Structure formats: structure tokens, C-alpha cells
Amino acid sequence: MTASDVYLLSPEISMVGLAVLVVLADLIFRQKGVVAFLAIVGLAVPVAFSIALWIDIDGEATSQRFLELGQATTFAVDHFSLFFKFLVIAVVGLVLLVSQDYVGRFAKYRGEYYALILLSAVGMMLLPSTTELITIYVSLELATIPLVVLSAFLRDARSTEAAMKFFVLAAVSSALLLYGMVLVYGFTGSTQLSVIAERIQEQPVESIAFGAAPLLLGVVLIVAGFGFKMALAPFQMWVPDVYEGSPTPITAYLSVASKAAAFAVLIRVFYLAFGGLSLDWSIGFAVLAVLSMTVGNLMAIAQTNIKRLLAYSTVAHAGYLMVGVAAVAARVGDGPTDLGLGGVLFYLVAYGATNLAAFFAIIAIANKIKSERIDDFAGMGFKAPLLAAVLAISLISLIGIPPTAGFIGKIYLFNAAVRADLAWLVVAGAINSVISAYYYLRVIRVMYTGNETERETVPFSLAARGALAISAVGIVVLGVIPGYVLDVAQSAVGVIVGG
Amino acid sequence: MISESAAWAIFFLPIASFLIIGLVVRPFFNRFSKISAYLAILAIGGSLVLSSYALKSVLGHEEAIGWAAHEWFSLGGGEAFTFSIGIYMDSLTAIMLVVATSVSLMVQIYSMGYMKDDAGYARYFAIMSLFTASMIGLVMARNIVQLFVFWELVGVCSYLLIGFWYQRPSAAAAAKKAFIVTRIGDFGLLLAILYFFFNQDTFAAAGLNSLEIPDIHQAAVMGLIGTVALAWLAGGIFAGAIGKSAQVPLHTWLPDAMEGPTPVSALIHAATMVAAGVFLVARFFPVFSPDPHAGMTAAMTLVALVGGITAFGAATIGLVMHDIKRVLAYSTISQLGFMMLALGVGAYDAAIFHLFTHAFFKALLFLGSGSVNHAAGTFDMRYMGGLRKHMPWTYVTFLLGSLSLAGFPFFAGWWSKDEILAHAFNQGGVGLVVYGLGIVAAFMTAFYIFRVVHLTFHGEFRGGVEKKIADASAGVVRDGAVVTITADEESKRGEHVHLGESPVTMVLPMALLAVAAVVAGFIANPPFDLGVIQAHWFSHNLVMAQEPLLHFEEKAAGIEVGLATVASIVALAGILLSYWIYQAKGISTDRIAGAFPGLYRLLYRKYYIDELYEGGLVNRVFYRGLAFFAAGFDSRFVDGIVNMFGWTSRNLGRAMAQAQTGQVQVYGLGLSAGIILIVAAFIVWG
Fold this sequence. Notes:
The complex is a heterodimer of chains A (499) and B (686).
Chain A: H1 3-28, H2 32-42, H3 44-58, E1 64-69, E2 72-78, H4 79-99, H5 110-126, H6 133-151, H7 157-188, H8 193-202, H9 213-230, H10 238-245, H11 248-273, H12 282-301, H13 306-329, H14 339-369, H15 380-383, H16 385-399, H17 405-419, H18 423-448, H19 462-480, H20 483-498
Antiparallel strand pairs in A: 1-2
Chain B: H1 4-28, H2 34-58, E1 65-66, E2 70-74, E3 82-85, E4 88-89, H3 91-114, H4 121-140, H5 144-162, H6 169-198, H7 200-205, H8 213-222, H9 227-244, H10 253-256, H11 262-270, H12 273-283, H13 285-288, H14 298-318, H15 324-344, H16 348-376, H17 387-390, H18 392-406, H19 412-427, H20 430-457, H21 464-474, E5 477-478, E6 481-482, H22 487-490, H23 504-524, H24 537-545, H25 550-555, H26 561-583, H27 589-595, H28 597-604, H29 609-659, H30 664-685
Antiparallel strand pairs in B: 1-4, 2-3, 5-6
Helix pairs in contact in B: 1-2, 1-4, 2-3, 2-4, 3-4, 3-11, 3-16, 3-23, 4-5, 5-6, 6-9, 9-12, 11-16, 12-15, 12-16, 14-15, 14-20, 15-16, 15-19, 15-20, 16-18, 16-19, 16-23, 16-24, 18-20, 18-23, 19-20, 19-23, 19-26, 20-26
């Protein structure tokens, strides 16, 4: 490994270093606030390295650098992967901030809690860069296993059950993913995405036993493996149980960062390796999109627990994102090809800000009323007007009503789909948005109806307030002046669709 | 020359004040709500300074200052999906900016006194800041989508302010009415915008962007849009203006809008909401009049007639109202009619000139009525009188405003109204018809505003709100109806009337506006050079930016002495008649009303238009007819479908919930089933 290789990996390496440092600091300092402070401030290092890499790569012709191990290219650093690294680090920072109001419930294990979050983030930062199947698998496990541990942190019946289910099902999905990879390897003889792409182009399908069937099965199994992480239907069944049982900050983390990383790797695998595949995989993605949107929204209607409601909503949003992915695949003629991908990236940021804001507000409210039942949120509009307002704004953004981030995100995704001749998919998306309005607005209605009551103080630390304010401002800023992030997202996908 | 960032600051200062008050002061420091007034005033003061600088910068330039549009956001792939924002700064914009910010500043200073002790003090100033900012954004807009956003924001803010005292059912109803009635007009504007949106290719072929206002001007002049399409577009835009500027037949919301705090009325009636409609027509003037040599187009004739009828009709209603604010409200409608009339006959500059002078004296009159209410506790002129002695400042300033409105020679209103009438007369044809309507309306204007002066300030005091409440309790019948009290008066039950001058925060803005009401006309459009001030600089600059209008300017340059004399005599006659009836008691008002009972009732009932709309149109046609049919269709057919969907989704949800057993084995099964499903999908469709 040369120095330049280390430089390419510097964001991840510094993140691992930070995690180790946090564990050590946990041993030394009695005051656990110091540990938290260290974890949050320490994020500046990976951010700095990522920025340096972004600038360096900007100047290069290919705008991409590869890390090579022996003969294999395993790791690519480009704007696409860096975009996701920034997103993951930002989410980690906000989650750490808001955890200050939550870690009291497992006071003895605060150090481990922070370290595990950071370690899981390393996996999520690696994922968008990976260009080789084994690396993908290892990164995925690195991202998932700490999350399993974290979901058990409350150590009550629900939390333990959630972790157990998460663990078993994650193992099953890993097995499926590996099986798919094996089939692809057997078909092409390589684990490198670029080589796989070449072999698929070269080999006439007729010359192989069973034709393209093994490859098809392999591709589907890989989709299933990633679909599990993205919470796509029909691989979503673990989602509500795990979301409900886990500590809420972890739920927020899971719903945003984990999903984003999985989308990143899905896009890279399908564009790099299966781009030349004769079969049109967009139809599969379109089916998954419709299924996820429909299942997510229909199931959400019946929920009484706010975390379960958001769990199903996250399934639905994975479906909307899939509309964007399908739109790219189905590109027709010589129209713009990068619209759908740019839309997916923007939507992930918009959805991240929105969902984090919603979960953060819920943490504060649930801390106050000691309940996560939607009915118990009655009157919050009067008791805690600001918190309720933030929750309302984020729910409005989840529906996709202007002037919020969710509106612009949906416009962008749906616009891409229409231009890719997938108007029927947009119709399905629009109908689903309407259905979703029903259960989101119901929460708002509960908060603002009932008798006007006095304001009450809600215990809410300064750090958590900051996290809430940042994500809430993000929703509105992305909704009113989306241009800048759109441009960055568009330039980030250039390397994928151009290359 | 003003820089672009300074121009943006005009807009962002009040926006910042709105955000700070709304997000910081009100939630956290509501105990110190006084800060919000200072913040709002500071911000709007800054905007006024910058606006004046902007006006100075554009004067003498033929071309508008053309800052390039900024891309707001793009949906990728071509101009058609790119939305941009930018500032279009010409003399029209700059003048509107000065009007909006200066009147808003005066109104907000006044509000410090008027709204003192109101529980919603901070909320009030937050919305006032947003209201002003929306108006600023509207007049600066370069892009038609951007314009529409602020157009709607102005509507929303007026809704919030008219319904400011939302606990009162009448205020809530008035707010709703204002919003819904203007909405009808907005639909027309929206259709016009959609036309531009869907015809981007036609524009693009000529190198133009159909959403940019300067490009629309150019396209209209070049003849890129067909004559018929142009007429329809003009109609759509004018529909929007009819709603916002309260022209017949959508004028009914404005008199009810006085349910809001009086300073809000002053702002709505003078500088923001209603001015937006006139501004809109002026902004798209080339669409109405693409070729100056072709005379009045059909669209212009429509504008002129609607304006003339409104000017006349509203003035007649103003003759008989008892409520001082209602008289002023009808007066506003009537004066807006004058502006529309001017636009219709091609007197673009005269319309804006009248908007300019009217803003000052009408704001002054409204603030004066608020000051009167401060003392007497009521707006009902039957319970006022003799206030001259108790409120000398209010009296003097109100009198100056009234003289200006009446068109007394050399007051601000005289210059602008005269120019409108002169243009109409010179235009001939339909112009003569609207001239006739206008001159009669001018006579009535002079009469009704001096009726207000006499009833309010002269004679003996008639007891104010105390007496009115007593009368209402005793069930006294006056003017053919039992006296009823308003929510505002009800809130003063049990208080004693203390007649006295209002505090200095209220008197000072009135005094400043009074100065403007006297001199604004002469300073803005002097007939000859006055040292640094050039003759007719106002009209000249406005017309210069609009090349197609040169024709009209040649036709009616300067005030023609003969017409001016006629107008002055008419105004004086109106003032004298009202003196004779109300001061000298030359004839009893009851006798006049008794002589024409039908006419009096018709006017007092406002031509039964409200009844027609609510009873006839809304109740019969919409509610019992259309809505009944729609309800049947809805409950049988639509609900059937919805129920089917609901039933299906509920049961589907239940069926799916069955699968959600919580057992890991089932989840694993789901995973496998999913894989089979995808493979099947590939095999079937792939």
C-alpha cells in the first residue's frame, strides 16, 4: 500500500481512528460529555480529508482515482462516492448531537455507543466507493453488524427482539447477496465490476449452459441483498419491528445513512457491471418501486405508533427513490441520461434532512410525554409550538408539498421518469403521494386539535436543539433554493453515467 | 447607479425582519414585543432609502436596468425546465417601490401607537413586514412565475391581516371573503401564465424566454403572439387585476376588508394589495396595447369601461354609507376605477401618477379614521361630530387629505385626476363615455368626502361608542333599521369615551402624509422646470421606458386648461353642495332620502350585489344547484370509488398485517417470495 493509497482511504482511516480514540477516551474520562464532544468534533478530520480529495479529483481528467490491490481494482474515489461520504458524515454528526438526550438510558455504555456508530459509518463510507464484489460484501457487513448491536442497546424486551430479528434477517440477506455474487462470478469469472461488464459484453449468451438464467438469478439475488438494506418491499418486513425497538437516534440513523449507502452501491453495481446487460433491468426496478410505495403507504395508514408509521413511510420513500433508479435504466433515445440519478442523490439529501428532523422532534416529544403513540401527541401544537411546527414541516416535506425539500425532490424524480417514458410509474407515485398525505396529515391534525393549553417546557438539550434546527432549516433551504445541491448532485453522477 | 445587491436588499430587509420577529422575538422574547416594532420600522426604513436610491438611478434611463436572471433551479435538460429569478428595475418598479415602502413605513410607525397593548403585537409586525416584502417582490419580479409567487403571497398576507382578530367571526369571514373573491380573478392570471408556459417553443424560436417579463413585452410588440391570443391573454391578466384591485364585479371583498386593524386597511387600500392589480396591468401594458398607433384595442376598451363603471358605481355607494371606513373603502374602489380607466385609454403614466398621489392621501385618510376611532370608539359617523375641537391635528391632516381626494386645485389629487380625465377626453370614442362617468364620479367624490368631514369633525359631538351601545340596547331604529354594534365596538363596552388627540406616534405619520398629499402631485409632475426638478419628470420617465406609449404622450402632453377648469369647478361644486347640506343645513338629508326612497335603498344596499352573490349566485347556483348536483355525484359515484379504494386498501393492509406476525421465519419466507416475484417479473416483462 503506497502513501497515495492511504490518502485515498484517509476519510475511512481517520474515522476508524476516531472510533478507537473514543473508546480510549471512554476509559480515561469520567465525564462522558467529553467523549461525546470528542466524537463530534473529531468528525472534522474525515470531513477535511474528503474535501481535500474532492478538490484534488476535480483537477484530474478522469475525475476518478482507483485503489488497486494486486491485479484487482477494489476502490474508486470520485465525486459520486465523496458525495455519499459527506452525506453519511453529516448524518452521523447530527445523530451524535441528538443522542445527548437519549444516552442517559444506557449511561454505562455511552463510549461504546459512539464508537459503534462511527464504525458502522466507516462501512457506509466504504460502500459507495467499492468496485469489487468481495469488498462490497465486507463493507456491507461492517456497516450492518454495529447497527445490530446498537439496536439492542436499550436492553429491554422490544429492543432485544428487534436486534435478534435484525441479526437473523441480515444474515439471511447476506447469504442471498453472496449467493448472487457467486452466480455472477461463475458466469463471468471475475469479482471486479469493470471486468464483469466486459465479460458480459464479450460472451454470447447462447454458448453457456442454461443461457442467461444463472446471471439473471444472480442479479436478482444481488438486488434482494441490497433491497434488504434499502428497506424495499418485499424485503421490508424487518423494518417496523427493528425501527420500533431500537433507540430512536439509531432508528433515524438507520433510516437515512444505511439506506443512502445501499442506494449508492446499487447504482454503482448496476451501472458499472450490468450496464451492458441485454435484459432491461429497469422493469424489475419499476416493479419494486410500485410495490414499495404501495405496501409502505397502505401499511402506514393503520399504524398507531409514530415510529412504526415512519418505518413504513421509509419503505414508501425507498419506492420513490427506486422510480429515479428505474428512470435511468429505461433511458430512451438521446435524452438527458443523468436526470434520474441526480434526482436520486438530491432526494437522498432531502429525505435525510426531512426524516432526521422528524425523528429528532419525535425524540424530544416522546421524552416529554413518555409515549410514542400518535394519539398521545394531542395538543403538542400548543404545549410545544416550535417542536410541533418542526414535526409538521417535516411531515409536509415527506408528503411533498412546497416549499419543502420533499417537493423539489419528488418533482425531480418524477420529471426524470416522465422523460424516460415511464409516465405510468409517475402516476403510481402520484397516487401514492396522495395516500401518504392521509396518514401524515393525521399526525398534524392530532397535534393541533383539542383544547388550547398552556405552553410547557420540554427537556431538550442545546446540542439536540442544534441538530433539530440544522435539519429543519435544511428542509426549507433545500425547498426554496435547491439549485446548489442539485448542481452538486448532477456533477457527482457524471462519473457514473459518463463512464 | 444602484447595484444589484442593493436592489435585492430592498426585498430582503423586510424579509429578515419578518424572520427575526417570527422565529426569534415572538417565540422567545414575547415579553419584549416592543422590539418587533423597532425591527420592522428599521428594516422598512432601510428599504425606503434604497428604493429612493433606485428611483434616482433609473431616472433618465430609457432602458430598464437589466440584471441577468439567476437560475433558481433547473429540472435538467433545456431552458423549458429552468426556473429563474431576477430583478426588473425600470421607472415603474422604482416608483412602486417608493410608494410601497414609504406608505408602509408611515403605517408601521402609526401602528406603534394604534396597536399598543394588543396581544398579537409581534405577530402583527411580523406579518406587516412580510406583506411589504411580498409587495416589493411582486413589483421587482422579472419572471412571471416569480411574480405569481409574490402575487399569491400578497393575497395570503392580506388574508392574515384582515383576519388578524381571528376570534371575531366577522373578521374571519371578511378574511375568507377577500381571499376567495380575489382567487376568482387569480384564476385568469394563472391561465395567462400557463399560456406562456406552454408556448415556450414559439418564444424560443425568436430567441426569447416566454417566462421573462421583458421578453413578453418584446414578443407582444413584435407581433409574435397572435391578435386573438393577445386579447385573451390581456383578459386573463386583467381578471387577476379585477380581483386584486377590487374592480366591478369582484369589488365586494374590499369594504369588508376593514375588519382588520385600521392601519392594515391603510396599507391595503393605499400601497400594497389593491395597487398590485393596477401595477399588473401596467406591467403587462404592451400585451394590452402592442401597437400604439392602432388606438384602443378591445382589451383596452374593456379595461376602460370596467374602470369607468367602477369609478362611478363605487362613488354612488360612498354617498350614503354611515361607516367612515366604508366610505373610504368605496372611495378606494372608485379611485382604483380611475386608474384602470386611465390604463384603458392608454394613459399609462397618468394611471401610475394617480396611484402615486392616491397612495399618500388615501393612507392619510385611513390613518385619520383610525385616529378618530381612537377617540370616539366607533367608526359610525352618526355618533361622531364636533371632533375638530378635540383633535386639531387629526382634523387638519384629514381635511388636507380630503381636499386632495376631492381634487381641489393644486392639491396632489387634482394633478393626477385631471390628467386622467384629460387623456380620456382626448382619446375620443369610448374615451368620451368614460370621461363622462369619471367627471360625475369626481363630483360625487368631492361630495362624499366632505360629507365625512362635516359629519365627523363639525357640528356637535353625538356621543360616540357609549351612545351607540346604549341605542343598540334600547333598540333604537335609525335609517330604517335597528342600530347594531360591531365586534370592535362591542369590545369597548363599559368604557367611557375620552375625546382627545392621539399620541405623537400616530399624529406624526399623518402629518408627514399630509405634506405628501398636498405637494406630491406638483413635485412629481410639475408643468414647468423647478430648478433641479424637471417638468413632467414622472410621466416622462414612465413613458420613456415604454416605447409603445410615446404616441399617447404626444396626444396629451400637459394639462389642458379648459378641462382642468371644468374638473376644478366640478370638485368645488361637490364640496359646496356638501357644505350646504351638512353644514348650512340647507336641506334635510331625510328629505332627500325620502324623495328617492328606491334609489336610496338601492345605494344603501350597495346595488344588492352582496345579496346577489351570496343569495343568488352562491346559494342558489352554487350551493343548491351545482353543489347539490356535485354532492350527489360525489356521494354516489366518487365516494363509491373512494370507498372501494378505502375498503380495498384497508383489507389489503389487514391481509398484509396478517403476514406481519413478528415471526422471523415468516419474514424469511417473505424474502424468498419476493425473489421469486422479481424473477417472475423479468420472465414475464423482461
